[in-house]
Amino acid sequence: MTLVVVGASLAGLRAVESARRTGYRGRIVLVGAEEHLPYDRPPLSKAFLDVDGPSELEPFHPETVLRNELGVELLLGAPAEGLDTGAREVAVAGTAVRYDTLVIATGATARKLPGARTLRTAEDAVAVRAALDAGARTVVIGAGFIGSEVASAARKRGLPVTIVEASAVPLARAVGETAGAELAALHHAAGTELRLAAEVTEVAGDGVHLASGEVLPADLVVAGIGAVPATGWLESSGLTLHERDRAVVCDATLAAGPPGVYAAGDVAHAPNPLFDGLGMRLEHWTNAAEQGAAAARHALDPASARPLEPVPYFWSDWYGRRIQFVGTPHADEVVSAGGVTLYRRGDRIAGALTVDRPREIMKYRRRIAGRAPWAEALAFAGAA
Amino acid sequence: MRIDADRAKCDGLGMCEAMAPDFFEVGEDGTVVVLDERPGEEHRQDVAAAVDACPVLALKLT
Protein backbone atom coordinates (compact mmCIF):
# COMPACT_ATOMS: atom_id res chain seq x y z
CA MET A 1 0.00 0.00 0.00
CA THR A 2 1.26 3.46 -0.86
CA LEU A 3 -0.11 6.81 0.27
CA VAL A 4 1.26 9.62 -1.86
CA VAL A 5 0.91 13.14 -0.52
CA VAL A 6 1.62 15.83 -3.10
CA GLY A 7 2.48 19.10 -1.41
CA ALA A 8 4.92 19.37 1.49
CA SER A 9 3.56 22.31 3.42
CA LEU A 10 1.19 22.30 6.39
CA ALA A 11 -1.70 20.31 4.85
CA GLY A 12 0.65 17.70 3.42
CA LEU A 13 2.52 17.35 6.69
CA ARG A 14 -0.68 16.97 8.68
CA ALA A 15 -1.83 14.33 6.20
CA VAL A 16 1.33 12.32 6.84
CA GLU A 17 1.09 12.68 10.61
CA SER A 18 -2.56 11.74 10.73
CA ALA A 19 -2.01 8.70 8.51
CA ARG A 20 0.52 7.34 10.97
CA ARG A 21 -1.69 8.22 13.92
CA THR A 22 -4.48 6.07 12.50
CA GLY A 23 -2.04 3.15 12.60
CA TYR A 24 -1.36 3.03 8.87
CA ARG A 25 1.90 1.15 8.33
CA GLY A 26 2.13 1.26 4.56
CA ARG A 27 4.46 3.33 2.45
CA ILE A 28 4.17 7.14 2.49
CA VAL A 29 5.74 9.34 -0.16
CA LEU A 30 5.73 13.10 0.40
CA VAL A 31 6.28 15.14 -2.75
CA GLY A 32 7.21 18.83 -2.50
CA ALA A 33 7.95 21.48 -5.11
CA GLU A 34 10.21 23.45 -2.78
CA GLU A 35 13.64 22.18 -1.70
CA HIS A 36 12.77 22.72 1.96
CA LEU A 37 11.44 20.37 4.57
CA PRO A 38 7.87 21.38 5.52
CA TYR A 39 7.93 24.76 7.28
CA ASP A 40 5.39 27.15 8.70
CA ARG A 41 4.28 30.09 6.57
CA PRO A 42 2.42 32.55 8.85
CA PRO A 43 5.67 33.74 10.51
CA LEU A 44 7.09 34.71 7.09
CA SER A 45 5.06 37.92 7.03
CA LYS A 46 5.07 38.37 10.81
CA ALA A 47 7.90 37.57 13.25
CA PHE A 48 10.44 36.79 10.51
CA LEU A 49 10.26 40.38 9.20
CA ASP A 50 11.04 41.91 12.61
CA VAL A 51 14.43 43.50 13.24
CA ASP A 52 15.04 40.97 15.98
CA GLY A 53 13.10 38.18 14.28
CA PRO A 54 14.45 34.65 13.88
CA SER A 55 17.44 34.53 11.55
CA GLU A 56 16.59 31.09 10.22
CA LEU A 57 13.41 29.28 9.39
CA GLU A 58 13.16 26.07 11.33
CA PRO A 59 11.23 23.26 9.66
CA PHE A 60 8.29 21.72 11.53
CA HIS A 61 10.32 18.54 12.02
CA PRO A 62 13.96 17.67 11.37
CA GLU A 63 14.54 15.35 8.45
CA THR A 64 15.35 12.41 10.71
CA VAL A 65 11.94 12.67 12.39
CA LEU A 66 10.18 12.70 9.04
CA ARG A 67 12.20 9.81 7.61
CA ASN A 68 12.63 7.63 10.68
CA GLU A 69 9.81 8.35 13.11
CA LEU A 70 7.10 9.07 10.56
CA GLY A 71 8.57 6.72 7.95
CA VAL A 72 8.19 9.13 5.06
CA GLU A 73 10.01 8.97 1.75
CA LEU A 74 10.78 12.55 0.76
CA LEU A 75 10.77 13.80 -2.81
CA LEU A 76 11.59 17.47 -2.31
CA GLY A 77 12.47 20.07 -4.91
CA ALA A 78 10.38 17.91 -7.19
CA PRO A 79 7.17 19.51 -8.45
CA ALA A 80 4.46 17.06 -9.50
CA GLU A 81 3.92 17.23 -13.25
CA GLY A 82 0.84 15.15 -13.90
CA LEU A 83 -1.75 12.73 -12.56
CA ASP A 84 -3.14 9.58 -14.16
CA THR A 85 -6.09 8.46 -12.05
CA GLY A 86 -6.61 5.31 -14.18
CA ALA A 87 -3.08 3.98 -13.67
CA ARG A 88 -2.99 5.61 -10.21
CA GLU A 89 0.27 7.36 -10.90
CA VAL A 90 1.66 10.80 -10.17
CA ALA A 91 4.38 12.06 -12.51
CA VAL A 92 7.23 13.55 -10.49
CA ALA A 93 10.48 14.71 -12.05
CA GLY A 94 10.00 12.50 -15.07
CA THR A 95 9.19 9.32 -13.16
CA ALA A 96 5.88 7.75 -12.21
CA VAL A 97 5.08 7.36 -8.53
CA ARG A 98 2.34 4.81 -8.04
CA TYR A 99 -0.29 5.33 -5.34
CA ASP A 100 -3.16 3.46 -3.78
CA THR A 101 -4.35 6.57 -2.01
CA LEU A 102 -3.51 10.16 -2.87
CA VAL A 103 -3.78 13.45 -1.00
CA ILE A 104 -3.44 16.54 -3.16
CA ALA A 105 -2.14 19.41 -1.04
CA THR A 106 -0.19 21.54 -3.48
CA GLY A 107 -1.53 24.77 -2.02
CA ALA A 108 -1.49 28.01 -3.88
CA THR A 109 1.15 30.23 -5.41
CA ALA A 110 1.27 33.97 -5.06
CA ARG A 111 -0.19 35.88 -8.00
CA LYS A 112 2.69 37.66 -9.68
CA LEU A 113 3.10 41.19 -10.93
CA PRO A 114 6.15 41.88 -13.12
CA GLY A 115 8.76 43.88 -11.27
CA ALA A 116 7.28 43.24 -7.82
CA ARG A 117 8.22 40.69 -5.20
CA THR A 118 5.73 38.33 -3.63
CA LEU A 119 5.74 36.91 -0.12
CA ARG A 120 4.84 33.26 -0.01
CA THR A 121 8.00 31.20 0.36
CA ALA A 122 11.04 31.18 2.61
CA GLU A 123 13.14 32.73 -0.19
CA ASP A 124 10.59 35.51 -0.62
CA ALA A 125 10.71 36.28 3.10
CA VAL A 126 14.51 36.37 3.18
CA ALA A 127 14.54 38.84 0.28
CA VAL A 128 11.87 41.11 1.80
CA ARG A 129 13.61 41.12 5.14
CA ALA A 130 16.97 41.93 3.57
CA ALA A 131 15.41 44.92 1.80
CA LEU A 132 13.81 46.12 5.04
CA ASP A 133 17.12 45.63 6.86
CA ALA A 134 18.68 47.89 4.23
CA GLY A 135 16.11 50.60 5.03
CA ALA A 136 13.98 50.28 1.90
CA ARG A 137 11.29 52.76 0.93
CA THR A 138 8.48 50.29 0.46
CA VAL A 139 5.44 50.20 -1.77
CA VAL A 140 2.96 47.40 -1.20
CA ILE A 141 0.51 46.59 -3.97
CA GLY A 142 -2.70 45.17 -2.56
CA ALA A 143 -4.19 46.07 0.84
CA GLY A 144 -4.88 42.47 1.82
CA PHE A 145 -3.55 40.72 4.89
CA ILE A 146 -0.09 39.86 3.58
CA GLY A 147 0.45 43.35 2.20
CA SER A 148 -0.77 44.92 5.41
CA GLU A 149 1.63 42.78 7.43
CA VAL A 150 4.53 43.86 5.23
CA ALA A 151 3.51 47.50 5.72
CA SER A 152 3.34 46.88 9.43
CA ALA A 153 6.86 45.41 9.44
CA ALA A 154 8.17 48.45 7.56
CA ARG A 155 6.51 50.92 9.95
CA LYS A 156 7.84 49.02 12.95
CA ARG A 157 11.29 49.92 11.64
CA GLY A 158 10.20 53.50 11.04
CA LEU A 159 10.47 53.09 7.26
CA PRO A 160 8.16 54.94 4.85
CA VAL A 161 5.55 52.72 3.23
CA THR A 162 2.66 53.22 0.85
CA ILE A 163 -0.05 50.68 0.10
CA VAL A 164 -1.70 50.88 -3.30
CA GLU A 165 -5.11 49.22 -3.54
CA ALA A 166 -7.34 48.88 -6.59
CA SER A 167 -10.63 48.83 -4.66
CA ALA A 168 -12.23 51.78 -2.89
CA VAL A 169 -12.36 49.80 0.36
CA PRO A 170 -9.62 47.38 1.40
CA LEU A 171 -10.53 43.80 2.30
CA ALA A 172 -14.16 44.26 1.28
CA ARG A 173 -14.34 40.68 0.05
CA ALA A 174 -12.64 39.22 3.13
CA VAL A 175 -14.50 41.09 5.87
CA GLY A 176 -17.12 43.31 4.20
CA GLU A 177 -17.06 47.06 3.56
CA THR A 178 -17.77 48.32 7.09
CA ALA A 179 -15.02 46.35 8.72
CA GLY A 180 -12.69 46.94 5.76
CA ALA A 181 -12.98 50.68 6.29
CA GLU A 182 -12.31 50.27 10.02
CA LEU A 183 -9.19 48.22 9.34
CA ALA A 184 -8.00 50.86 6.86
CA ALA A 185 -7.97 53.32 9.76
CA LEU A 186 -5.26 51.20 11.42
CA HIS A 187 -2.96 51.98 8.49
CA HIS A 188 -3.59 55.72 8.75
CA ALA A 189 -3.01 55.70 12.50
CA ALA A 190 0.34 53.95 12.02
CA GLY A 191 1.59 56.36 9.38
CA THR A 192 1.18 54.06 6.41
CA GLU A 193 0.01 55.93 3.35
CA LEU A 194 -2.98 54.19 1.76
CA ARG A 195 -3.89 54.88 -1.88
CA LEU A 196 -7.34 53.48 -2.57
CA ALA A 197 -9.01 53.04 -5.96
CA ALA A 198 -5.56 53.37 -7.49
CA GLU A 199 -4.48 51.43 -10.54
CA VAL A 200 -0.89 50.33 -11.04
CA THR A 201 0.23 50.53 -14.64
CA GLU A 202 3.83 49.45 -14.24
CA VAL A 203 6.47 48.54 -11.70
CA ALA A 204 9.69 49.99 -13.07
CA GLY A 205 13.20 50.75 -11.86
CA ASP A 206 12.19 54.18 -10.60
CA GLY A 207 9.16 52.96 -8.69
CA VAL A 208 5.50 52.14 -9.04
CA HIS A 209 3.65 53.93 -11.82
CA LEU A 210 -0.02 54.69 -11.27
CA ALA A 211 -2.72 55.33 -13.85
CA SER A 212 -2.94 58.88 -12.54
CA GLY A 213 0.57 59.44 -13.89
CA GLU A 214 2.09 59.59 -10.45
CA VAL A 215 5.24 57.58 -9.73
CA LEU A 216 5.78 56.26 -6.20
CA PRO A 217 9.53 55.84 -5.67
CA ALA A 218 10.41 52.50 -4.10
CA ASP A 219 13.38 50.33 -3.20
CA LEU A 220 11.12 47.43 -2.32
CA VAL A 221 7.85 46.63 -4.09
CA VAL A 222 5.79 43.75 -2.72
CA ALA A 223 2.65 42.52 -4.44
CA GLY A 224 0.07 40.95 -2.16
CA ILE A 225 -2.66 40.44 -4.70
CA GLY A 226 -3.87 36.98 -3.90
CA ALA A 227 -2.86 33.42 -4.55
CA VAL A 228 -3.77 30.93 -7.22
CA PRO A 229 -4.32 27.19 -6.56
CA ALA A 230 -1.31 25.21 -7.77
CA THR A 231 -3.19 22.89 -10.10
CA GLY A 232 -1.44 23.41 -13.44
CA TRP A 233 -0.20 19.83 -13.13
CA LEU A 234 -3.81 18.59 -12.91
CA GLU A 235 -5.20 20.33 -16.02
CA SER A 236 -5.29 17.12 -18.10
CA SER A 237 -5.93 14.74 -15.19
CA GLY A 238 -9.69 14.62 -15.62
CA LEU A 239 -10.22 15.95 -12.09
CA THR A 240 -12.88 18.64 -11.88
CA LEU A 241 -11.20 22.00 -11.42
CA HIS A 242 -13.29 24.94 -10.28
CA GLU A 243 -14.42 27.13 -13.15
CA ARG A 244 -13.32 30.34 -11.47
CA ASP A 245 -10.13 29.61 -9.57
CA ARG A 246 -9.13 26.15 -10.93
CA ALA A 247 -9.06 24.63 -7.44
CA VAL A 248 -9.74 20.90 -7.05
CA VAL A 249 -13.48 20.48 -6.59
CA CYS A 250 -14.24 18.04 -3.76
CA ASP A 251 -17.25 16.88 -1.81
CA ALA A 252 -17.56 17.75 1.88
CA THR A 253 -15.43 14.71 2.79
CA LEU A 254 -12.67 16.12 0.52
CA ALA A 255 -13.03 13.30 -2.03
CA ALA A 256 -12.07 14.60 -5.46
CA GLY A 257 -13.92 11.91 -7.46
CA PRO A 258 -11.57 9.17 -8.71
CA PRO A 259 -10.96 6.27 -6.29
CA GLY A 260 -8.55 7.08 -3.49
CA VAL A 261 -8.07 10.74 -4.45
CA TYR A 262 -8.61 13.49 -1.85
CA ALA A 263 -7.58 17.13 -1.64
CA ALA A 264 -6.83 19.44 1.27
CA GLY A 265 -5.88 23.00 2.11
CA ASP A 266 -5.58 26.02 -0.17
CA VAL A 267 -5.93 23.85 -3.27
CA ALA A 268 -9.32 22.33 -2.32
CA HIS A 269 -12.74 23.74 -3.05
CA ALA A 270 -15.37 22.02 -0.91
CA PRO A 271 -18.96 22.67 0.10
CA ASN A 272 -19.40 23.56 3.76
CA PRO A 273 -22.59 22.13 5.30
CA LEU A 274 -22.28 24.65 8.13
CA PHE A 275 -23.11 27.46 5.68
CA ASP A 276 -25.86 25.81 3.61
CA GLY A 277 -23.29 23.96 1.48
CA LEU A 278 -21.59 27.17 0.39
CA GLY A 279 -18.53 26.25 -1.70
CA MET A 280 -15.36 27.39 -0.01
CA ARG A 281 -11.70 27.48 -0.80
CA LEU A 282 -9.89 28.64 2.30
CA GLU A 283 -6.33 29.91 2.52
CA HIS A 284 -6.14 29.58 6.28
CA TRP A 285 -3.61 27.85 8.49
CA THR A 286 -6.21 26.08 10.61
CA ASN A 287 -8.10 24.85 7.58
CA ALA A 288 -4.97 23.41 5.98
CA ALA A 289 -4.17 21.59 9.21
CA GLU A 290 -7.69 20.24 9.70
CA GLN A 291 -8.31 19.26 6.08
CA GLY A 292 -4.86 17.72 5.67
CA ALA A 293 -5.42 15.41 8.61
CA ALA A 294 -8.96 14.53 7.51
CA ALA A 295 -8.04 13.92 3.86
CA ALA A 296 -5.51 11.27 4.83
CA ARG A 297 -7.90 9.56 7.25
CA HIS A 298 -10.66 9.52 4.64
CA ALA A 299 -8.35 8.31 1.88
CA LEU A 300 -7.13 5.41 4.01
CA ASP A 301 -10.57 4.48 5.33
CA PRO A 302 -13.29 5.87 3.04
CA ALA A 303 -16.00 4.13 5.09
CA SER A 304 -15.14 6.41 8.01
CA ALA A 305 -15.33 9.60 5.93
CA ARG A 306 -17.60 12.29 7.34
CA PRO A 307 -18.41 15.71 5.90
CA LEU A 308 -16.22 18.43 7.37
CA GLU A 309 -17.79 21.61 8.67
CA PRO A 310 -14.80 23.89 9.08
CA VAL A 311 -15.31 27.23 10.79
CA PRO A 312 -12.96 29.46 8.83
CA TYR A 313 -10.51 31.26 11.11
CA PHE A 314 -7.66 33.57 10.37
CA TRP A 315 -5.61 36.12 12.19
CA SER A 316 -3.38 38.94 11.14
CA ASP A 317 -1.03 41.20 13.11
CA TRP A 318 -0.79 44.86 12.12
CA TYR A 319 1.12 47.47 14.06
CA GLY A 320 0.92 45.43 17.23
CA ARG A 321 -2.82 44.91 16.84
CA ARG A 322 -4.32 41.42 16.60
CA ILE A 323 -7.06 41.05 13.99
CA GLN A 324 -9.08 37.84 14.17
CA PHE A 325 -11.93 36.62 12.00
CA VAL A 326 -14.07 33.52 12.35
CA GLY A 327 -16.80 32.26 10.04
CA THR A 328 -17.87 33.71 6.72
CA PRO A 329 -18.36 37.30 5.55
CA HIS A 330 -21.06 36.09 3.11
CA ALA A 331 -23.83 37.56 5.20
CA ASP A 332 -27.28 39.09 5.00
CA GLU A 333 -26.35 41.74 7.54
CA VAL A 334 -23.22 43.09 9.21
CA VAL A 335 -23.50 44.79 12.57
CA SER A 336 -20.98 46.47 14.85
CA ALA A 337 -21.85 45.55 18.40
CA GLY A 338 -19.86 46.07 21.56
CA GLY A 339 -16.59 46.62 19.67
CA VAL A 340 -17.04 43.47 17.58
CA THR A 341 -18.26 43.10 14.01
CA LEU A 342 -20.86 40.35 13.65
CA TYR A 343 -22.18 38.76 10.47
CA ARG A 344 -25.73 37.40 10.21
CA ARG A 345 -26.83 34.72 7.77
CA GLY A 346 -30.52 33.90 8.00
CA ASP A 347 -31.33 33.80 11.70
CA ARG A 348 -27.87 32.62 12.75
CA ILE A 349 -24.53 34.15 13.51
CA ALA A 350 -22.18 33.33 10.62
CA GLY A 351 -19.09 35.39 11.33
CA ALA A 352 -17.25 37.63 13.78
CA LEU A 353 -14.33 40.02 13.49
CA THR A 354 -12.40 41.32 16.46
CA VAL A 355 -9.41 43.60 16.93
CA ASP A 356 -7.39 43.05 20.11
CA ARG A 357 -10.00 40.87 21.76
CA PRO A 358 -8.25 37.52 21.92
CA ARG A 359 -10.42 36.36 24.80
CA GLU A 360 -13.65 36.71 22.85
CA ILE A 361 -13.05 35.40 19.37
CA MET A 362 -13.32 31.69 20.19
CA LYS A 363 -16.57 32.30 22.02
CA TYR A 364 -17.98 33.45 18.69
CA ARG A 365 -16.39 30.54 16.88
CA ARG A 366 -18.20 28.16 19.20
CA ARG A 367 -21.48 29.91 18.51
CA ILE A 368 -20.95 29.72 14.75
CA ALA A 369 -20.02 26.03 14.90
CA GLY A 370 -23.06 25.37 17.09
CA ARG A 371 -25.44 27.24 14.74
CA ALA A 372 -26.33 29.66 17.51
CA PRO A 373 -29.19 32.10 16.95
CA TRP A 374 -28.31 35.64 15.90
CA ALA A 375 -30.19 37.20 18.77
CA GLU A 376 -28.18 35.22 21.31
CA ALA A 377 -24.88 36.26 19.69
CA LEU A 378 -25.95 39.89 19.71
CA ALA A 379 -26.88 39.64 23.38
CA PHE A 380 -23.50 38.05 24.12
CA ALA A 381 -21.70 40.86 22.26
CA GLY A 382 -23.65 43.42 24.24
CA ALA A 383 -22.67 41.77 27.47
CA ALA A 384 -19.06 41.02 26.50
CA MET B 1 -2.37 12.65 31.45
CA ARG B 2 -1.05 16.15 32.09
CA ILE B 3 -1.29 19.30 29.97
CA ASP B 4 1.90 21.38 29.73
CA ALA B 5 1.41 24.88 28.33
CA ASP B 6 4.42 26.96 27.38
CA ARG B 7 3.02 30.41 28.04
CA ALA B 8 6.13 32.10 26.63
CA LYS B 9 5.49 30.40 23.30
CA CYS B 10 1.72 30.87 23.36
CA ASP B 11 0.47 33.44 20.87
CA GLY B 12 -3.12 33.47 22.12
CA LEU B 13 -4.63 32.27 18.85
CA GLY B 14 -7.21 30.23 20.72
CA MET B 15 -7.36 27.02 18.71
CA CYS B 16 -7.04 25.00 21.92
CA GLU B 17 -10.10 26.74 23.29
CA ALA B 18 -11.94 26.01 20.05
CA MET B 19 -11.15 22.30 20.26
CA ALA B 20 -11.55 21.75 24.01
CA PRO B 21 -13.23 24.71 25.74
CA ASP B 22 -13.57 22.80 29.01
CA PHE B 23 -9.81 22.68 29.38
CA PHE B 24 -8.41 25.78 27.68
CA GLU B 25 -9.25 29.43 27.54
CA VAL B 26 -7.47 32.52 26.26
CA GLY B 27 -6.98 34.66 29.34
CA GLU B 28 -6.93 38.38 30.13
CA ASP B 29 -3.31 38.75 29.01
CA GLY B 30 -4.00 37.08 25.66
CA THR B 31 -2.30 33.80 26.48
CA VAL B 32 -3.65 30.40 27.35
CA VAL B 33 -5.13 29.49 30.71
CA VAL B 34 -5.33 25.76 31.33
CA LEU B 35 -8.57 25.20 33.21
CA ASP B 36 -7.74 21.66 34.30
CA GLU B 37 -4.15 20.46 33.99
CA ARG B 38 -4.98 16.84 34.69
CA PRO B 39 -7.97 15.84 32.60
CA GLY B 40 -9.41 12.37 32.97
CA GLU B 41 -8.56 9.75 30.34
CA GLU B 42 -12.09 10.03 28.94
CA HIS B 43 -11.18 13.49 27.61
CA ARG B 44 -8.02 12.37 25.82
CA GLN B 45 -9.43 12.75 22.32
CA ASP B 46 -10.57 16.37 22.78
CA VAL B 47 -7.47 17.42 24.66
CA ALA B 48 -5.15 15.77 22.13
CA ALA B 49 -7.01 17.53 19.32
CA ALA B 50 -6.46 20.84 21.10
CA VAL B 51 -2.76 20.13 21.58
CA ASP B 52 -2.38 19.19 17.91
CA ALA B 53 -4.25 22.28 16.75
CA CYS B 54 -1.86 24.75 18.37
CA PRO B 55 -0.32 26.81 15.56
CA VAL B 56 2.81 27.60 17.59
CA LEU B 57 3.31 24.21 19.27
CA ALA B 58 2.95 25.65 22.76
CA LEU B 59 1.06 22.67 24.18
CA LYS B 60 2.23 19.23 25.20
CA LEU B 61 0.50 16.24 26.63
CA THR B 62 2.51 14.09 29.02
How would you describe what is shown here?
- The complex is a heterodimer of chains A (384) and B (62).
- Chain A has 384 residues and is an alpha/beta fold.
- Chain A has helices at 10-21, 63-69, 122-133, 145-156, 172-175, 177-189, 285-300, 361-369, 374-383, and strands spanning 2-6, 27-31, 72-75, 80-84, 89-92, 95-98, 101-104, 108-110, 138-141, 161-164, 193-195, 200-204, 207-210, 215-216, 220-223, 227-229, 248-249, 261-263, 268-272, 278-280, 313-318, 321-327, 333-337, 340-345, 348-355.
- In chain A, the strands form seven sheets. A five-stranded parallel sheet of chain A has the order 3-2-1-7-18.
- In chain A, strand 4 (80-84) and strand 5 (89-92) form a beta hairpin.
- In chain A, helix 1 crosses helix 7.
- The longest helix of chain A has 16 residues, at 285-300.
- The relative contact order of chain A is 0.13.
- The mean pLDDT of chain A is 96.
- Chain B has 62 residues and is α+β, with helices and mostly antiparallel strands.
- Chain B has two helices and four strands; from the N terminus they run βαββαβ.
- Chain B has helices at 15-19, 44-53; strands at 3-5, 24-26, 32-34, 59-61.
- Chain B has a two-stranded antiparallel sheet. Chain B has a two-stranded antiparallel sheet with strand order 2-3.
- In chain B, 39% of the residues are buried.
- Chains A and B meet through helix 7 and helix 8 of A and helix 1 of B.
